Amino acid sequence: MPLHRLLTTVGLFALALCISTPAHARKRAPTPPPPAMAPATDSLGALAQPQSGTFGRVSSSDLEAEPVLEAGGSIVLAELDGPGTVDRIWIAIEGSETYWRDIVLRIRWEDSDVAAVEAPIGDFFAVGPGARQNLSSLPMVVQSGGRSFTSFWAMPFASRASITLDNEGVHATRVLAWEVDYNNAPVGPAPLHFHATYSQSVGEASEKPLTALRTTGAGHYVGLSVVVQATEPGNVAAGRVGFTVDGDARGGAGSEKLLRYFGNMFGVNAHSNPYSGATLAEGGRAKARTSMYRFHVQDPIPFAQSIELTVERGPDNSRSDRLSTVAYWYQGGVATPSTKLASARDRRWTAPSDDELRLWARADEIDDEIVEAYRASDLDGARTLLEELLKLEPANAIASYNLACLYALGDEQDKALHMLQQAVDLGFSELSYARHDPDLASLHEHERFKKLVGLQ
To answer: How many CA atoms does the CB half-sphere of 19 hold within 13 Å?
Structure first.
């Protein structure tokens, strides 16, 4: 069965080597000077190093009245004189259902009028297109049902930093609070500036993928968040993500399947990890939304002259799903935007209705019951549940594939081939997996099977 639960546990191990010396040797040896402390290689190790500079904070608590961000208005969270580094940005916000895409975070560095960071607040924090989700990652955290946002990205600046929120919607905020923590230690005359940019593609399928990032200069790429809303059933993560680094599309990161880029190959399940995860996974249904992120904290991608990042919608960009991205990177100077931010109206995507969400929730419950039955070798029970699931969701490609597997295990080849054909027609694209799936072993020599999985 192609439904897998993948749990990744990251362990940190420390090895201490103790070298003992005879007592008489210790007495005769001169006392050495204290050794210089080794450079810190991680954030916890850095806490043992002397810290320079002075801590500072700008907070909404310092205001005389509770701040309100009116419709069409703008509010300055912080104006800072450099040099310094913004270490933490915390924003708590409540408003209308559309505010995640209506309210835009903008950050400007030095004397530039161009925003190096420009993204709707929910998308910047990798929690999707208006859904109230939480996130627990190393550089960013979202809590309180998606209403409390914290960024820990290090953001150095030489002379000036300006952080604003702009309300491009039609509703004022009901609750708004913030804190910006910074340190004024020197950063040098030309620090690498933090950047983040939002891009989207909405409409019919196109041969051209979405350009998530295009910039010239020197720096390093540190992450990507992607939101897809399906306009048709099927696998929304079947496209590819491609990198062109310093003009070379073959070297460096190259190109790989979108799902693998986010660390999976068996579908998208909601989870939140330090470096990658999915904050929203409503499945492969029409109108369903998927939100994924990956942060290159341990593996940034450097570029000396330029970098371009593209994301496809489905194989060969053949699907018409709504797609949006936020790319994160550092570079010298302030990058010129390669695209214009889409209007607030175009950024608002119609969410599934409550009835649709309830139906999907019931379907997911049945899906869990199917997995339990399969693992218990209750194939008849699993088949009955799958037939029930397909009555609820006739366009469910994964359910069709799973039912094909059960029919094949029961040596009902005609039914199995029919359901496999249905799965492919509905958008099932993991054909390389199907070719070697032991549950389909009884079909492997069948000519129709070979055609369906691309062996002929």
So the answer is: 1
Look up residue 90 and give its amino acid: W
Residues of the chain with pLDDT > 90, as a percent, come to 65
Amino acid 331 reads Q
> Could you give the angle at the alpha carbon of 23 between the alpha carbons of 19 and 27, nearest 5°?
110
Nearest to 90 by CA among 166, 151, 175, 133: 151
Angle at the Cα of 271 (from 267 to 273), degrees rounded to 5?
120
Measured in whole angstroms, the distance separating CA 148 from the mean position of its chain's CA atoms is: 18
Specify the pLDDT at position 266.
78
Q: How far is CA 60 from CA 125, 290, 448, in A?
A: 20, 33, 66
d(CA 80, CA 184): 10
Predicted pLDDT of residue 212: 96
Query: Quick check: helix, strand or coil at residue 141?
Result: strand
Backbone φ and ψ of 367, nearest 5°: -60, -45
Report phi then psi at 81, rounded to 5.
-95, 140
Range list for CATH 2.60.120.1390 in the chain: 55-347
Q: Amino acid identity, residue 289?
A: R
- How is residue 443 annotated by DSSP? G
Tokens of 202: 């909405």
Residue 177 has pLDDT above 80, yes or no: yes
* Prediction pTM value: 0.82
Asked if 400 and 419 count as a contact pair (C-beta separation under 8 A), the reply is yes
CA distances from 355 to 360, 396, 426 (A): 9, 17, 23
Write the Ramachandran bin of 427: left for phi over 0, alpha for psi from -120 to 50, otherwise beta: left
pLDDT digits over 369-403, tens only? 999 998 999 999 999 999 999 999 898 888 999 99
CATH class of 55-347: mainly beta
CB 93 within 8 A of CB 184: no
Please name which of 196, 313, 220 lies closest in space to residue 258, comparing C-alpha atoms. 313
> In terms of C-beta density within 10 A (0-12 exposed, 13-18 middle, 19 or more buried), how is residue 378 classed?
middle
Rounded distance between C-alpha atoms, residue 58 and residue 79, angstroms: 9
Q: Name the segment(s) of the chain with CATH classification 1.25.40.10.
A: 354-452
CATH architecture of 354-452: Alpha Horseshoe (1.25)
